Structure formats: structure tokens, C-alpha cells
């Protein structure tokens, strides 16, 4: 078993572990965002109830509650933006995993000598290459979306 094959296999495992750790971190953050959403929603409901009972409270108190409500809305919008970024990252991780698997399959076909390849092998190799290009194009679209989003936020 050549050294380069072991190195390639080890690197593939390492990148898979890194993707798994990133996916776990993203999942944890999404759960935290969900909890924060619920908390903000509860705070917003309380503030709305206080504002609706307006005739009982002074104007400066209402202004303070309105400002708090606007702050909550801003915070929620920021969380929604972060959540959408994380969802794009999840899609990117899936495509990265898919690309890695296709790379390994393609490498196994490409390691075969051309004289030993059957027509089915050649057809499968071409199909894998086609799928790999589709995955790369999808990742490129995600990157372009992120860049457009970043530029629009600036």
C-alpha cells in the first residue's frame, strides 16, 4: 500500500472530522439562536402588552418601552441574518462532503490503468466527473450568494 495512498486517506479522514466538528458547532449555534428567538419573543410580547395599556403609563415610559421593542426587533433581525448565514454554511458543508466522496470515487477510477478500464468504468468515471463539476458549481453559487449578501450589507 503506497505511502501516498495512506496520506490521501488520512487527509480525507482529517477533513471529514473537521467538517463534522464544524457541523456540530453550527448545530449548537442554531439551537442557541432558537432559544434566543423564543426569549426575544417573550420580551416583545411583554413590551407590547405594556404599550397597549398606554393610558395608565406616562409618555416617557412609553417611549422607553418603544425603544426597547425596537432594540428587540433589531436584535431579532441580526439573529435571523446569522441564522441564514449558518444555513448557507450547512449547505456548503454538505456540498463539501459530497465533493470529497466524489473525489475519492474518481481517484479510484483514475488510479486504474487505462488498459484495464472497462467501458463501464470509463462511463462511471465520466459520470462522477460530471457530478463533481455540478457540486463545484453549486458551491460556487453559494459563495457568490455570500459575497453578494456581504456587499449589500456594507
From TrEMBL:
It comes from the Eukaryota. Keywords: Coiled coil, Membrane, Monooxygenase, Oxidoreductase. PANTHER family: [F-ACTIN]-MONOOXYGENASE MICAL1, CALPONIN HOMOLOGY DOMAIN-CONTAINING PROTEIN DDB_G0272472-RELATED. It is found in: Membrane. Residues 23-50 form a coiled coil. The keyword Ribosomal protein does not apply. Residues 13-154 form the BMERB domain. The gene is Mical1. This is MICA1 monooxygenase. Its main location: membrane. GO terms for molecular function: monooxygenase activity.
Amino acid at each position: 500500500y503506497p505511502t501516498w495512498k495512506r496520506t490521501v486517506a488520512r487527509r480525507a479522514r482529517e477533513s471529514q472530522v473537521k467538517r463534522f466538528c464544524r457541523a456540530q458547532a453550527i448545530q449548537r449555534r442554531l439551537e442557541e439562536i432558537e432559544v434566543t428567538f423564543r426569549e426575544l419573543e417573550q420580551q416583545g410580547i411583554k413590551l407590547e402588552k405594556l404599550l397597549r395599556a398606554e393610558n395608565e403609563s406616562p409618555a416617557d415610559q412609553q417611549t422607553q418601552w418603544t425603544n426597547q421593542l425596537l432594540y428587540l426587533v433589531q436584535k431579532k433581525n441580526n439573529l435571523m441574518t446569522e441564522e441564514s448565514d449558518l444555513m448557507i454554511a450547512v449547505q456548503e458543508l454538505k456540498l463539501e462532503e459530497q465533493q470529497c466522496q466524489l473525489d475519492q470515487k474518481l481517484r479510484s477510477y483514475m488510479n486504474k490503468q487505462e488498459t484495464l478500464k472497462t467501458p463501464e468504468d470509463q462511463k462511471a468515471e465520466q459520470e462522477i466527473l460530471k457530478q463533481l463539476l455540478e457540486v463545484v458549481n453549486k458551491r460556487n453559487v453559494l459563495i457568490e450568494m455570500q459575497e453578494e449578501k456581504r456587499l449589500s450589507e456594507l
